[in-house]
Amino acid sequence: MFHTEPLINFLSTMSLAVALTGAVQAVMQRRDTAMFRVLAGFFIATILTEMGEALGPSIAHGPTLVVLNALWIIGAASALPLLWLYISLLTSSGGQWPDHLWAHFLAPGIAVTLFVLAFIIPVADRNILLGDQNGALSEIGFAVGVGFEGFALFIVIAQWLFYLTLSARRLLRYRSRLKNVFASTEGRELRWVAVIIGIGGAYWLLSFLFLMLDLTGLVADVPEVPEYALNLVVSGILVVWGLRQRPNLMPEQKSPGTEAATKYAKSALTGEM
Fold first, then answer.
1. Is-above-0.90 flag for pTM?
2. CA-CA distances (angstroms) from residue 162 to 32, 100, 157, 254?
3. What pLDDT, on a 0 to 100 scale, did the predictor assign at position 31?
4. Residue 70 needs a FRET pair 20 to 30 A away by CA distance; which of 50, 58, 128, 201 works?
């Protein structure tokens, strides 16, 4: 029987390395800094989702492993809002931030709250939730466990679908505006963004299907290899294309006198005149 744990660990480690490279490169960008800081945030969220699986085998047990596994919920809740925000800034005409931005970070805020609560509950409850021991949970331990499970199984999946839909709509509107600005839109349509949205859609579909199979008891052991493989592909595309992309609808910055110099370029006037 083929064991998937080594393959999952390899894919997760590769995703972690690629995301770490992307985060460093995004922070070092000197143009369109707001957009690239958001992209760096997405890479950091990806790192949080991969740390538990990538580093877990080298940490058999203990508080560190608990932290790494609990960080997953923060990364999972933050990744799609940050990806949508990056696409919004990339396709904007003046670098405008979306309206009501705070509302898009309610889910990450809830995830951070659950993460903190996981370390406030009694140690016995924490060990039961992690499967290290058997026993009855206290009321607060039961509430935190339900919160983690409900958030991971339902809220995050619904959130992914919501932001993938927003991203697709944003890309379609951007392409429509391109036709009003440029005679030829070749090379400006951000096809790689469409690929990411398509991969994200496949990821969501697999996650939803596996969730339904798991809840109905039809499949006891849900395969995780596709999930980690798609994570690696998305991170790789964003490192290759996202880091070198610039907003196509941003107004060009011209130095003083450039327009006049162009207008009289074929005349006999000197530069001073």
1. no
2. 26, 16, 9, 39
3. 86
4. 201
